[in-house]
Amino acid sequence: MNVEGKTKSLAAGHVGAPTGEKPATVTLLRMLVVDCDAMSRRGFVASLKEWGVSDVRVAKDAIEALKLWRTTGPFELVLCDAMFPSTRGMELIATLRTEGERAPILVVSSQRTLDTLAQALEVGVDDYLQKPVHPDDLRNAISLLLSRSIERERSGGHSEKAPLFGATARVEALGTERTLALTAMTHSLQLESFQGVCERFAAIHLSSVERLHLHLALEEILQNAREWGNRFDPAKRIRFTFTPLKDRVCFSIEDEGAGFDPASIPDPSINPKEHILRRMASGKRIGGWGLFIARKRMDDVSFSEKGNRVHITKLFKQACFPATEA
Q1: Residue 248 in contact with residue 187, Cβ under 8 Å?
Q2: Going from the N-terminus, what domains does the chain have, and what CATH number goes with each?
Q3: How far is CA 258 from CA 188, 194, 255, 305, in A?
Q4: For residue range 100-118, what is the model confidence (pLDDT) as tens digits?
Q5: 104, 192, 216, 299: least surrounded by Cβ within 10 Å?
Q6: Sorting pLDDT into bands at 50, 70 and 90, what band is 14?
């Protein structure tokens, strides 16, 4: 898949972006839309054409979608309602991933519960929007996915072979709380998808600054789990959990490494220049800021006794999540 050098562009602003970032302008030429509802298909096609997408193919079900993909693919992005009817949309996505599709897959569905998110994440979905979706949110989601896809191609290395499916996603119950948990190999790109989907789930209850702080904290801790915890060992796993409650969201990231002493990480804000020079001299990347942000901006950050599991809690200004979704 190569989305660079195309003649049509899909520009997007920052409205609705879950992390508060402004997506880069990306290029897009061919897209597949799968939805059993004719009105939804027409609406998606009209929006995409307005944004300059030159070739939009549509399918009303999994059979038509697979035929189009096998005969006219590949596509730069697949937009799919995963709930037509029942779970056939999930089966379609699983088939596409199994047969080698690495293009971003965006689900737009009327259903969004922890159970549907678990199903979608396990089969290899990159992002998940709930209908009815505002055009700005759809445009931003597509732009962000394509930007990440371009970055993966540019970076090469592990990203080229990193799995887009194969992780285990489950909803776990502990008393009255329900937790969405993903267990994936170190290099799995499903970890980023999990992070993005869960951030979006909580984003409407947070300010843009709070979303940015949460994103940076999770991104840094996930990178630490890969780099310092699992030492980039592809055979090791990372467990990523998300618990939405009425008054807060909780995340945890656990690796299979030996752990560390959180107190040994100095505060980089005391002397930023010295902090950077010290890390460079020891051969480390210029990091530590994500953990600093997490400690300063999240309402609670704690570690397991071993030091290989981090818990983050972010409180809302008022109770938000209905009990049925928590």
Answers
A1: no
A2: 9-158 (3.40.50.2300), 166-315 (3.30.565.10)
A3: 20, 24, 9, 11
A4: 889 999 999 888 899 999 9
A5: 299
A6: very low
